[in-house]
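User: I need a structural model of Transcriptional regulator from Capnocytophaga gingivalis for a docking pre-check later this week. Nothing fancy, just the predicted structure tokens so I can convert them on my end. Input:
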Amino acid sequence: MKSLLAHINKSFDHRIRLAIMSVLMVNESADFNTLKELLGVTDGNLASHTRALENEEYIAVEKTFIGRKTNTRYRATAKGRQAFQEHLEALEKMCQLSTSPQEN
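Assistant: Understood. Predicted structure tokens for Transcriptional regulator:
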């Protein structure tokens, strides 16, 4: 069990960061407003969680302008994809352990 826990990534402990990475794993990228609407979070909340993932180099941020408005897009990096996949695999193994019949 200790080796499984070693693969649980603290960066994905929070449900919003877990959701951000889930969206970015199945989409090439997502913009700020799309993530905000999908997750039902405030601007500040989303900004702080994307910043945390960016600091870990799990997501990349691209800012462009559409007309006079800033458009912020996020994508999962190779490092982020690998870390998230390892996190999911550890969770799956933990679930398998907890649902397998116990030996007496």
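Before docking, keep this in mind: The two ends are 18 Å apart (CA to CA).
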